[in-house]
Structure formats: C-alpha cells, structure tokens
Amino acid sequence: MRVILTHEQADFDAIAALLGASLLDEGALPVLPRRLNRNVRAYLNLYGSELPFHEVRDLPNEPIESVTLVDTQSLVTLKGMGKHTRVRVIDHHQPRADLPPDWQITIERVGACTTLLVEALREHMEPLNAHLATLLLLGIYEDTGSLTYNNTTARDAHAVAYLLEQGASLHLANQFLNPPLSEDQREVYHRLLASAETLEINGQTIVIAKGEAIGLVEEVSSIAHKLRDLLDPDGLFLLVKTAEGIRLVARSTTDRINVAEIAALFGGGGHERAAAALIRLPDLGVPEDEALEAVYQRLTDVLPEKVQPAITVEQIMSPRPMVLSPETSAQEAAQLMQRYGYEGYPVVKDGKVIGLLTRRAVDRALAHRLNLPASSLMEAGEVVVRPQDPLEVVQRLMAETGWGQIPVIDPESQAVIGIVTRTDLLKALGRNHLAAPTRQNFADRLEAALPPARLALLKLIAERAHQRRLPVYVVGGFVRDLLLNRPSQDFDIVVEGDAIALARALERELGGRVTSHSRFGTAKWHIAEIRASLLKDTLHISNASLSDLPEFLDFISARTEFYDYPTALPTVERSSIKLDLHRRDFTINTLALRLDGRHYGDLYDYWGGYADLQRGLIRVLHSLSFVDDPTRMLRAVRFEQRFGFQIEDRTLQLMNEARDLLRQVSGDRLRHELDLILAEDDPLPALQRLEELRLLEAIHPDLHWNAHLNEPMKAALKAPLEPAWQLPETWGGAPIRRMLAYLIWFLPLPAEKSTSLAQRLRLPHHLREGLKIGAALIPDLPVLLNYAPSQIVNRLDDVPPPVIYALFLLYRTSEIATMLNTYATQWRHIHPVTDGHTLHALGVPPGPAYRRILWALRAAWLDGKVQSPEQEHLLLEQLVTSKTP
Fold it and tell me: What is the layout of strands, in order, in the sheet containing 204-212?
C-alpha cells in the first residue's frame, strides 16, 4: 500500500497538495490528518464526497511500502509502516537538518507546496475538472495571500493561470479563504486583543498577544489573520495556551522578520511570513501556571536577535553623485544620459537641490529642436532625503513626486552627498532573505586567509589611506573566493579617490618604484627590492620570507565605464565604489571588503552578489552586459563550471540573444578567454558547456568540442608528461600544456579547418606551423607502421616534439602511439659515433656527402645493420670509398 500524508492542523495548501499528489499517483491513498483548519473542514463537508481522500481509520490493514509527505517534513507513524517503508518528501519550506539520508527529498522555494504538484500535473497535460482546479487554487492562494505575499514566485502565478484555464472558481476561493470567526474564536480574539502589547525592536513594530483558550478546538490562524489586519504591525506573535500546549502563531509583513526562523526555535516552522509552533507543557520544565509567561519571556529574548534592522538610505545610496547646474543645456544633458545610462539628474544651485531633470524632458525638448537649459526643463522642487532615513521615506517621496532619483543631503551642511534611484529602492525592497546585511563584517575571515606579512602590508596601506581620508577596498574575485572559503593571496587595492596619489605617497615614505597610467587612474607599486626592509623596519615581522610579500601591488581608482558601440573597449571615468562594482561582469564579482578605519572588514554588497553566492547563481548586472563585452559569455561558463553554479535563466536568455556578437570579437581576446578556461582545474565541463550553448560555433563555425577528446585533453593538461620524452616547459614562449591542448583540440580537424581556426584565434606562430605539419603527418601515420625504423625517423625528425606528443595522446591505445613513443624515447636519440670531424680527418671534402654518409650510418644503426662501433667503422670505409654512398 502507498499512502500520501500531510501535517496536522492542515490548511488549504496541505490539503490541495494532498490532492495534487494523489492525482499524480492514482494508486496511492491520500490520508486526511486528524485536525483540519475550520475553513478546510467546511469545504470538505460540502465537496469532500467528490474528492479521493481517506480517513486513517478506513485504511486497509496492509503493510505500507511507501509514504509521500506533502507540505511537511515530519512523518506521522501509521500502522503498517516499518523499516521497509520508503519516504518521499515534496515541500517548499526550509529543509530540516535532521532528515534521514535515505529519504527522497524534493524541496523547492515557491510560495505554495501545491504549486509544485500543479506544475507536474500540467506536464502530464491531463485536463482537470473545475472542482479539483478550485481546491488546488485555494492551496496556492492561501499560502501566497492571493499572490500578494513576498514569498510568491512567478511559478505560483503560472500555476494559478493554468488552474483558471481549467475552470477554477475565484468566487469559491474568496468565500473559503476569508471565513468569519466562530463564537469561540471571537471570544479568544477579544481576549488576545485586550492583552496585545506593541514593542519597537530594531525599528520594527512588533505586536505580542497572549492568553488562554483551553476549550478552543478550532485553529488560531484565523484569529491571527484578523488581528494582523486590524493592528497592521510589522510582526505579530500570538501565544495561546490550549489543552495540547502553548500554540505560537506568527505573522510578518516584512522581509526583516522571518517568522519561520523564530518558530523553529520553538520546534515549529512555516514560511517567512506565516509560521506556527506547538510547545508541549512538559517540555518547558516550569509549573503549568508559569508556562505562558516562560514562553513569552523566551520570545522577547530572541526577537532582538532575529528582527533585522530597517535598511537606511545610507546603505543603498550612491555617494558623490553627478549633478547638473541650472545652465546645463539639453544637448549636454542628453550626452551625459547616453554615456552613463541614468534616467535623471538632480539640478543644484548654490549647493541646494532645486529640481530634477529627466531623460523624458530632455528627449521631448530635443525632439522639438529646443536646446533649453536644465532650469527650464526640470521638475522643480527641493525633494531630498537624509542618510539615516528608512526606505519607506524614499518610497513615499517617489510615489508623491514621481521622481525616480532622490538626492541625499548631509543633515548639517545640506550638501548633496549621494543619490538613491528607483532601481536602488526596488533592489532593496525585493532583496531575497538569503542576502547578507549590507555591512556584514568578514575581518576575521580576511585575517585567517592571509599570511601575517601580507596582512600587515594590507593594514599599513589601509592606515595610510585612512590618514588621507581615502576609502580603500579589496574587491571582486578575491572577495568572492574568500566568502567561498577558497581564498587566494593576490588582490588589487581599489581606492575611492586618487589611487595614483596614494601609491606615490607610499613610494615617498617607504621606497619602491611606482609606474602609473593616468588615463585609467591606475598605479603599480613595485616593492620587490624593498621587501626585506619592509619586513624588518616597517612591518616588524622577523620570521617571514621575502616571498610572503608580493613583488608589486596594483592600485586602482574606483571608476565607471561606458561603451561607444557593442564589443568596443570601454571608456573609463573616475567614480564611486558602487559604480565601480557595477561595471563588473557578474554579481558574484561585485563584492568589496573595505579596509580603512572603523570599516575594516565590512562587506559592501550593492548588487546582490552575496545572495547569488549563496544560491549558486551566475547573473549579469544589466541586460546589455553581453552586448558591451561578449567575452563575458565565455567567462560565465568558466565561473559556472568552476564553482558548480548555475547560469540563472535571465542571464542565459541574454546569452542566447547576444551569442552572434562573438563573431565581432578579436581573436586575441577570444583566445585569452579560452586560455583561462584551459587553465582551470578541470576545463572539460566548461568546454562541453560551451558546446551545449553553441558559443564555440559562434566564435567560428568549425569550432566544436567532442567528448571523445576528453581523455587526451585531460592527459595533456593534468596528467604527468612522459618524462622520457623530455618535453620543454614552454614552446614558442607559451606553456607547453596549453599548446598541447590546442593541438589535441584542432589536429583531428581537416587541415583547412584547423588553419582557419588558427587564424581566427590568432594562435602563436609555432602552434600554427605545428598544426600544418601535424595535419600533413596524420595521413602518413598508418603507412609508417609498415616501414623500417630509419624511414620512420626520416619522416618524423622534422616534426616538432609537441606535435608528436599530441598525436601520441590522440592515438594512445593504438600501434601508432607505440611507434611514436618508440621514436621519441629511443630512435631519435640514436646517432652514429662518426661526426663531421671524423669525415674531415678521412679527407672527405665538405659538402652534401657529409649529410648522406652520416644519415646512412644512422639508418644502419636504426635498422639493426650496424650494432657496434667496429661495424660502423667498416661501413664508413665502404661509404667513403664509394662514389654513391
């Protein structure tokens, strides 16, 4: 027997999921729990006869071979269960840490568990009758607040649309989702309302109400719903003492209060916005008359730790914004808007905001050939916020004024110090619960990752920057890898200000040599020659080696960049750290750790990189990212495969749309990205992924990856090279393994295709020539098997050893590989004792005869005709006396 179960005190999502699972597995018995919410019981009283549900008491007395749990991860024991019973979980809550390893788990973060079942039903393409569709709709609507709760996903909405197509009744849904309270519930409602107290915790309004309801048999959740609607708090917590124990029912209206996490502390669970727990009285260890107060005290103790502070303007604003003067012309403003992509600029006069100039106003003016000043086109008004204002203030101002960019002013000087855009606000309001606090601190992790000397140097630089009031950061890949617990030792210093000036100041104080690039605001501080004095005299570290410090450090001014046309190299300008991070490729590379002053170790995460690290997603920052730089598509695949992440759907869509732009990218830039992929610990999954996404053929129609090359490619890049071959570490100035990889990849292609690919990717000269020579050799290899060693050597001597080694790997298990290995390890090293000096001493005049005689001697050794120096001497005498050796 197979059964389907859900949790006690079942709501519509639980019962609808029970129905959905039974429709997918018609042989399984969906079992109703003992306790149902009142509105669910009312629905089943009316329509239950048409539904396939079973009561526990009606189950046949048979062994239970499998159990499917829906909307829960807690297994209720039934008669017939045993060690043989298989368990499958279908749920949408956070996974429990104690789930048995042999259970089959399907947990996906959607608004309602029913959504997962409806998606599966839709794949079966079997029509539903209106009655079944309505119950499934009730399940989704109840757990998503009719698609209004923040835990609602697009998948929930798609599922609802499908159910409406199947005839689901919105009228019935409304009728049963908002039932009136019973008489007993109304009594408890008034009792809780009278006891309700309001607390301000971390800027959030929390209402806690407690009371007894020993005789209540109906659900408390409906009471919580009514109280939440009446009091409208950020968080509501009800503590109700019943005959079973103390029921905790929690509701939240903000992402900053995750009531599921709080309920879990009391042995319960649920969603971020709705959760519950039942605390058994014996578990409390206090007298029964003190139980309610004990739970209340524990709740108030944990709330300050679990309620997140409200996000302030300072946390999401961009500092030092670009502003316009009233005299700025429409044409000048249009150029700025096109260059930086902003939709509006504050207009400032005498240090005060007097209006906002929008792109729409500029476009309309220019369409009428009116090059008017900003003062004539702007939306007038002194609309500003302050750094410590909560986001609700920004949201209200944008709604009231229509301004999409609100300047941030210093409360004392009234000067404009930042700006908050509509995009900033939407990102902050929509930030997923997995995102880290904007100023989470990772100082401890930073200090554990770096050796003492390098850490001391970093702190020294941060101190000097702090003295100059320059914010400094380490950014990008270093921070990403640090948070992934795979730290590196190399980092650049990003300066929010003049990086060159900071590097010069360090040079003057500590020595070394600085080279700079003023166009990009970058400087390189060369310290190889002063590392000893730095360690001893400045850092005061005696037990470190010189290699503990880098030979140089790069200093980079925070900058923004724009592209004049697709695939162009960027034009850069000085900017803030926020915009500097925004110019990067993917969100996971937009993280920064600040180093100066009291901010030491603070994580700056403006673009959701930390959340995507936790989710394992590769996401671009904006829709034109791949248009600006198509090589980012190759980088996306490299990062995806390196970290075991997934390219998120929207980014994948943008890649598909921009794929053909790879044809316009120079071969040097494409080869550089392919070189980086080949340098990965395991490049094969990335190469296969590039093939799946059709990115290789976008580079060149003949560029593909075939799985049969996996083994030879792995041997070329990672396996120990055969020592007897004595291959050089480099070939043509490039690492030998990389050159072997390209040979493995392209040698199996027809000569004209490999030549075309080599030209497209601008491969090094040695490699191009090697591909030509190898292509000409391949047809001869089977024939050479029938030749004498001297003939084989004669054919292979002019072939570069890396080409022969690549062919050896390609033919690894064949006779050809044996022949090539024998040539490389034995035959090519066989030479006669005789040399040119010997011939000269015998009176042989210099010329072509030398080569013919020496080759004849070598061929005799190779073919076994000569096996000793004495035999070689006899043959030499014959060759010297013969006119035609």
Answer: 197-201, 204-212, 235-242, 245-252, 274-279, 269-270
Per-residue model confidence (pLDDT) at position 149: 79
CA distance 206 to 239: 14
| Cβ atoms of residues 713 and 684 within 8 Å | yes
Residues 804, 724: contact at Cβ < 8 Å?
Answer: no
> Would you say 260 and 269 are in contact if contact means Cβ atoms under 8 Å apart?
yes
Looking at residue 437, its pLDDT comes to 40
316/576 Cα distance (integer angstroms): 13
Q: Which helix (H) or strand (E) holds 339?
A: helix 330-340
Q: What is the mean pLDDT of the chain?
A: 89
**Residue 541: pLDDT band with limits 50, 70, 90:** confident
Tokens of 318: 């961009």
Q: What is the DSSP string of 803-814?
A: HHHHHHHHTTTS
Q: What are phi and psi of 65, to 5 degrees?
A: -85, -25
CA distance 573 to 255: 36
Q: Kindly tell me the burial class for residue 705, based on how many C-beta atoms sit within 10 Å of its own C-beta (0-12, 13-18, 19 or more).
A: middle
Q: For position 574, what pLDDT does the model report?
A: 59
End-to-end CA distance of the chain: 92
CA distance 577 to 558: 5
Model pLDDT, residue 436: 39
Q: Token pair 């029964």 is at which residue? A: 288
pLDDT tens track for 127-137: 888 889 999 99
Number of helical (H) and strand (E) elements in the chain, helices listed first:
41, 30
426 contacts: CB under 8 Å, gap ≥ 6: none
| Count of beta carbons in the 10 Å neighbourhood of residue 63 | 11
Structure tokens belonging to residue 829:
């090293």
Sign of CA dihedral 504, 506, 508, 513: negative
Q: How far is CA 533 from CA 515, 526, 652, 708, in A?
A: 21, 14, 51, 55
Q: Which of 321, 621, 591, 613 is nearest to 473 (CA)?
A: 591
How far, rounded to the nearest angstrom, does the alpha carbon of residue 321 sit from its chain's CA centroid?
A: 29
207 burial level (CB within 10 Å; 0-12, 13-18, 19+):
buried
Dist. CA 231–CA 703, nearest whole Å: 65
- Please say whether the beta carbons of 596 and 462 come within 8 A: yes
Cα distance between residue 450 and residue 758, in whole Å: 41
The answer to whether the pTM exceeds 0.90 is no
- What is the rounded distance in angstroms from the CA atom of residue 541 to the CA atom of residue 613? 35
Cα–Cα dist 255/235, whole Å: 10
Among 109, 4, 12, which Cα is nearest to 56's?
Answer: 4
Look at residues 402, 412, 410 and name the one whose alpha carbon lies nearest to residue 381: 402
The values of phi and psi at residue 99, to 5°, are -65, 135
Q: Could you read off the pLDDT of 510-535 as tens digits, one per residue?
A: 999 999 998 888 999 999 999 999 99
Both tokens of 94, joined, read: 């956070």
